[in-house]
Write the structure tokens for this entry.
Amino acid sequence: MNHQHDPALVRGMTQPRTRREALRIAGFSAAGLAMAACGVQGQKKEPPKTDAVQDFWAKQTKHGKVVFANWPEYMPENQAPLKQFQKETGISYQYKEVIQENAEFFGKADPVLRAGQSLGYDIVVMTNGIQLQHMIELGYCVPLDHAKLPNFAANAGAAYKNRSYDPGNTYTMPYASGVTGIAINTKYVKDKITSVQALFDPKYKGRVGMMADSQEIANFGMFALGITPEKSTEADWKKAGEKLKAQRDADIVRKYYDQSYIDAVSKGDVWLSMAWSGDVFQRQLAGEPVDFVVPAEGGTIWTDNMLIPKGAANPLDALMLMDFLYKPVVAAELDEFIQYITPVPAAREILRTKAAKATGEGKESLEQMVNSPLMFPSEADYAKLHSYVKLTTAQEQVFNSIFQSITQA
Amino acid sequence: MKRLTPYLLALPSWMWLAIFLVVPMAAMASVSLQTGNAIDGFAMTFSVSNYTDALSRYSTQLVRSLIYGGAATLAMLAIGYPVAYFIAFKAGSRKSMYLFLLLLPFFVSFVLRTISWGFLLADDGILFGTLKGWGLLPAGFHVLATGFAVIAGLTYNWLPFMILPIYVALERVDPRVVEAAQDLYASRIATFRRVVLPLSLPGVFAGVLMTFVPATADPVNAQVLGGTSNTMIGNIIQTTYLTNLQYPTASALSFTLMAVLLVGIFIYARALGTENVLEAAAR
């Protein structure tokens, strides 16, 4: 989940439109017509039957290719882990940085998958939250065959093997986790920031960035009021909404950002902003005057998950790649670049060994990573971190309207 | 058969209209009257309340969009007319070069150009950072995250669409007409006001249509250059469609926007006297 727009945006805009995309657009219009005729069919699915899952996977064969759709800056530039995968398995890959936002991605994928067509991707990465929940509920994810996931079974951290949003990893495997906290531009902010209240401090009037995403901003409103998001109720959301509205009405907030917040912080347009941990680390390593803190009241932990979308052309190859990323060496290499929390705890030892052998600047940054509570949180750190509240479809509409009336006034 | 021929000849355009206008519109109209949610499905309930709800919830953003779109259109007219006039009458042999320069920004994507403005106008960026360094601006001064930035962005992005039609209209003004006016002792101002301006009105009409509609509906400038209270109706429609998956509300909003724009254009056309304008354009 990285959020700098430039590279992928440029790519997205310069890539020629392919025939597949033309077909996809045709799919959109077909879906539109279907909608018009008789309303849209609900597609809520029951959990898959074990036999059916086994039958599905028994029929799959290796095709020698896989298409991986991911977020920008979520893979080393040289794509070394993927190249290694190709070398070891003979499966060629296409890596596409096409996912910029969960809501937008789901909004675009939904009509295609609803029409029973393929997205053209074998693996997609989505954050736990409303849209991933929809993907699962609507039966858009292929259930995974855990018999084919030896590395995952051996190396995934206990916490990542049983996530509340996907018990037993029926459909998803974590790619990386991260923390939503506060980014600080240290050139302008000299105080030591420890509390979420800093985001509500009139001292920083017009210099505070908040996130436009309803789930993200809701959590911070609730932290400020001492509410635990996972246990929150409609009354709590309203209170949080009022708190955030007061913050907006006092002109403390400059803007409700998407991923562009990180540019705004590093340029100095905002001095304090809600932020994702890995973004800030990458900027720090680039020498920019930014710092990251998890507020004392709590931060949000989220997990980006790999899943195989329904209709994927090469599910077995996809499953092999997903499992391959759980080899500790591969996970370590990946995490050294993306600097979020890896679901493979053994990666830490590998980075530590590497740090011991390295020299100079490389050693320093590796040591910094190994000891960072935001890449390898301790139990105590995890205790401070909260997830999003789980919403039913009816609640979702109430929730969205409370927080969008603030972010989109 | 002979009597049917004209209709058959017109068939391709009717087909075009049916496929690309009538069918999608009918689809959207139908969706705008349904109720439900994306998980359980939507069903046709002829629910007119989609419109009233959407309108009462988002009237602020709708009105704001019309104001921003209108302000940007006026700004474009104020900048665009002199530019078109200059290119048409004063540019001489450099005409095609100026036209090329006008279109040059289109070689870069619209969103990227808008984001670039974000960098240029950053609080401590190239421009304002320098001015603040010289003490010419107070430290808290900023343009980004204001309504002004959004209107300026809209103006910048659609300016060529205002200039080009006006240029085409001015280009077609017969120089002999201007000479005749001068022969009849019209002052330069009177020549412009009573001869050139009326002849260029079809261009102005087309330019305003081509800019006011997209500028009012645009979501990008508000998102990239705006602040906490500059959300436009385009942003709302986008969020309603893609994030909230409330297709009926989004369709109702789209229709409302379209209706409001159509009414606006109709009034404008009447005020400017479409018949004269279209007659002139058809010449």
